[in-house]
Amino acid sequence: MNEETNSTKGIEGIEEIKTQHIEPKEPIVEKESNKPKEFKSKKSPPKEKLVDLKVKADPRDVSPEDRKRNVKKLAGAISHSLRATGEINVRCFGNASIGKAAKALAIAREYVGIQELQLECAPAFITTKIGDTDLTGISFCTFASKSDAIQIDIEKIPSVLMVKADPRDVSPEDRKRNVKKLAGAIAHSLEENKEVSIRCFGNATIGKASKALAIARGHVATRGSDLYCWPVFIVAEINGNERTGISFYCYTNEI
Prior knowledge:
Layout: E1 52-54, H1 64-85, E2 87-92, H2 95-113, E3 117-130, E4 133-146, E5 160-162, H3 172-193, E6 195-200, H4 203-221, E7 227-238, E8 241-252
Parallel strand pairs: 1-2, 5-6
Antiparallel strand pairs: 2-4, 3-4, 6-8, 7-8
């Protein structure tokens, strides 16, 4: 397994307290007493706040069982941090890691739901430099709050966008143009219906949708509101085969 996950860590080591020994002038004789000895409880060291969690893509030759296991481990790390601190940034570079993160977030949403917490994300672009190369990725700014009594049924959302993967031979310029078109469609649906469901099948479409959501978030911000979303698993029959995908339920805080 080639997965890098973070978990909340304790402070390593115990601070050594030095005391100065004073030699008594006369020997001290301990007297027996019926008074019980007092024991002071040691406080556990404070935990460090886990701010960023970088998602690594699995190797191509990893087994389906290990791939699912890695996603569940990532979901556990996310949900643990949300319960402990209430927020975490899930950082991804590449469609494989974005798809892995989206699936883990969908599972983590179920985990924190047991404590009546609602997982929500705000996608944003991030950049990093490896050597002389600048890489652009996606960070899911994830937080948890007390869930509302109203439950959302994804299947009953009137506005639905189906994301298609770009052909492999498409140019980088056309690929970016297609993402911007999808972002425009998301922003328009939010303006008209206040909510939209974005359906994806495969890492390529999940990556495309995540980037479009980050751009659409900028469009929505011009109206003075912010864009939020959370992923759920969906199942559909495509070409006679049953496939599992991800649907992003997207909405704004516009009143």
